[in-house]
Specification:
The protein is an alpha+beta fold and about 725 residues long. It is about 20% helix and about 30% strand. The protein has 12 helices and 38 strands.
């Protein structure tokens, strides 16, 4: 709920377990508190207005009121606050000083959609309450609406900003954050997710120090290098205890998150669009909407924070018919055939897949144009009749007759210079006049800020999806932006290109996903290079990494789970030696790791031995039994592969009737210590049967005393415990 006290000029935003409080003074929004829920805030810790050296002030009668040391909700530049601003705008006279002050507010039931941008949503107005704060600067004519949305069922607050030029002269926006929060101390560690291609979402935690820490991407995508997320953790916080504050941006392009510790040892934390190489011309009467930032607080450590993001993003960010449907087990032909595919081979793999109980066949790269390698034909979305002489519709019919669904790989946002599309429309790619066009993976980026490019892609993809009767689309994106310019934008708007690209992409995805609500769309960017909440809004799952090695995937999937639910994570069993790093792991371990998310295979089933085929069939059958638990249960991290040689996690059904636990050992060691697996999330008063043995234990016993992990010789083992609540005396 949201409450405004007119006497104290305080706003109190409450979720089930948290409070977020700020007040008004001199027209400025001053942050007071964010943390455990307070039933009624009476000002026990008021702000202290005291003059300090080098602190500028605008009122000679009140030298203690200085913006340089006050906790501000949406700070500006140039009025005495020397910390990084939440926004910055340039006037026609060249100055960049603005002064947005409160002029009113509105509290209402429900949550408004963001124009042209992905965002969380509600299905009924009663699920949320929102606050619009109206700010205005009469000198520049700049106005702002700061929106806060509090969810009834989630301990989260959605923040966004809408800027409008109500003056008579154009303005140029230079920097716009979606959220900024000032904390009144610095006793925090920061937690961020970093990585690279094939090594996504590693966890890094470090103590805050005086100065600034920046997490950002200027690549034209959220990127595998840094996720648009960070958490501030009290120094004593861990996985299951302590205060943790999360900041997650629902955006897929250039972002920046900044954590600044000033000389008073206070912290300013912000997240939003990256100001690097960005500006936006705002003519009179025009508005600019920022992406949405999702803020969440947990008193129960990092796990509590993850639970909030998992539940919110699974049920009120992801959309479409597959949001609440079980996801199919798939087989992808990429590592089986690469570009050397043909009808006979594909159908042979499909038949083996059907016999194993697999449900979806996905045809990956190489089916179109003259795509014999990565150097050509992107953009030529017509069937290569040399490889598929009967065409896609025929192949789809054959796959469906075998008993499988059919899916297809696309990389719509890119174009090969060696393609009919590029030869016909060389100006359709991002480029800058008189500059070379840098290649990455032998391709260029199409300019999705252009309506003609989007129209071409929409029509082309629509025709293929309809004619091939597709059940699934894998949407890939395999390079980042260079020479970021558009042939259709004027010179004074060129620095808008990257954001306009994202708006164009979102428009295209919105059109296609609404036209094909029963098609399962999966996002991919050389694996997890664009695994972000913005893409999850349109595509309810993402291929987590091109690295399918089971040991590498322990870290990748563990790190991804900090924000994203397992149902959103694509994970496949591949052949060994692993194609990315050459490691040989057991088929059982590969299966157990992949079954901890959306399960699938990426190998040549026709080359497996009879024994291996039997194992695959068993894995598929087992996953079908546990699939509702994996995809819709609560996920708990237990042993971190970033801190230990091993990894462990578990899943618990929403009603706490079923649970499954996984423990993974990587390298054997001499004279090993006894290892223990302790479940999380069970009913401590309940009793559970371990299905493999029939033994019955109390939930509290399983969570505290735990189970022994078997001691086996050799590397790469996985162990699974499956529980069901024990019904005693018919109860």
């Amino acid at each position: 709920m949201i409450n405004y006290d007119a006497k104290t000029h305080r706003f109190h935003l409450q979720t089930k377990r948290s409070s977020y409080i700020f007040s008004l003074d001199h027209g400025y929004l001053l942050h007071l508190y964010w943390g455990k829920r307070i039933n009624e805030y009476r000002g026990s810790r008021p702000l202290i207005y005291a003059p300090s050296s080098f602190a500028p002030y605008t009122d000679p009668k009140n030298r203690g009121f200085s913006l340089s040391n006050l906790p501000l909700e949406y700070p500006a530049y140039g009025n005495g606050d020397y910390r990084h601003p939440a926004y910055q705008a340039q006037l026609t006279n060249g100055s960049t000083v603005t002064d947005l002050r409160y002029v009113g507010h509105r509290i209402y039931t429900g949550k408004r959609k963001l124009s042209g941008l992905p965002a969380t949503y509600v299905e009924q107005d009663q699920e949320a309450q929102s606050l619009d704060l109206f700010l205005h600067d009469p000198v520049s004519g700049l106005s702002a609406i700061l929106t806060y949305c509090v969810f009834r069922d989630f301990d989260a607050i959605a923040r966004s900003v809408r800027l409008e030029n109500r003056g008579e002269q154009p303005l140029r926006l230079l920097h716009i954050a979606s959220s900024s929060v000032d904390f009144r101390d610095d006793a925090f560690d920061s937690l961020t997710l970093y990585g690279a291609h094939n090594n996504e979402r590693n966890i890094h935690r470090q103590k805050l120090a005086p100065g600034s820490q920046v997490i950002e991407s200027a690549r034209g995508a959220s990127s595998p290098q840094h996720d648009p997320f960070f958490a501030l953790m009290r120094t004593n916080a861990d996985e299951y205890s302590g205060d943790v504050y999360g900041f997650s941006l629902v955006y897929s392009g250039n972002f920046a998150a900044k954590i600044e510790v000033d000389h008073y040892r206070t912290v300013r934390a912000s997240i939003g669009l990256n100001p690097f190489d960005f500006s936006w011309k705002l003519v009179p009467g025009e508005c600019f909407q920022t992406p949405e930032a999702i803020l969440s607080y947990s008193a129960n450590g990092l796990s509590g924070l993850s639970q909030v993001y998992h539940q919110l993003y699974r049920s009120r960010l992801a959309r479409g018919s597959y949001r609440d449907r079980l996801r199919p087990i798939l087989i992808n032909n990429w590592e089986a055939t690469y570009f050397k595919l043909n009808e006979k081979k594909l159908l042979a793999i499909a038949k083996e897949a059907q016999q194993a109980g697999i449900e979806l066949f996905v045809l990956d790269d190489g089916w179109f144009g003259t795509r014999d390698n990565a150097k050509r034909s992107l953009g030529d979305w017509f069937v290569d009749r040399r490889k598929l002489p009967h065409g896609l519709t025929w192949l789809s019919d054959q796959i469906h007759e075998i008993g499988l669904q059919f899916g297809l790989w696309f990389e719509p946002e890119m174009v090969s210079p060696d393609s009919d599309l590029y030869r016909s429309h060389p100006d359709w790619c991002l480029h800058v006049p008189d500059r070379p066009r840098s290649l990455s993976r032998f391709q260029l980026v199409l300019d999705l800020s252009r309506a003609d490019v989007r129209n071409y892609l929409n029509q082309t993809l629509t025709d293929i999806i309809e004619k091939a009767n597709l059940n699934y689309v894998k949407w890939d994106m395999n390079r980042h932006m260079t020479e970021i310019g558009s042939a259709l934008l004027p010179p004074d708007r060129q620095r808008e290109t990257a954001h306009r690209y994202m708006l164009g992409l979102y428009q295209l995805l919105d059109t296609l996903t609404h036209r094909f609500p029963d098609v399962l769309f999966e996002s991919c960017s050389s694996g997890g290079g664009r695994f972000d909440p913005g893409m999850l809004y349109y595509m309810p799952q993402t291929w987590a990494s091109d690295n399918t090695d089971a040991v590498s995937r322990l870290k990748i999937q563990y790190g991804t789970s900090i924000i994203f639910p397992p149902i959103s994570i694509g994970a496949h069993v591949s052949a060994v030696p692993n194609h990315q790093i050459g490691r040989v792991t057991t088929l059982k371990m590969r299966g157990d790791v992949a079954m901890s998310a959306n399960f699938g295979f990426e190998l040549d089933l026709t080359r497996l031995t009879d024994e291996e085929k039997a194992v695959v069939k068993q894995q598929v059958a087992f996953y079908k039994k546990i699939r509702p638990l994996i995809q819709f249960g609560a996920f708990y991290r237990i042993t971190s592969p970033f801190e230990h040689e091993d990894a462990a996690w578990c899943f618990v059904s929403p009603d706490r009737v079923e649970a499954i636990g996984y423990y993974f050992t990587v390298l054997a060691s001499p004279s090993p210590a006894l290892k223990t697996f302790r479940f999380q999330g069970l009913d401590p008063q309940g009793f559970y049967e371990e299905l493999a043995t029939g033994n019955v234990f109390g939930g509290d016993e399983l969570m505290n005393a735990g189970l022994n992990v078997p001691d086996e010789k050799g590397d790469f083992h996985s162990y699974v415990w499956r529980l069901r609540r024990f019904k005693k005396n018919g109860q």
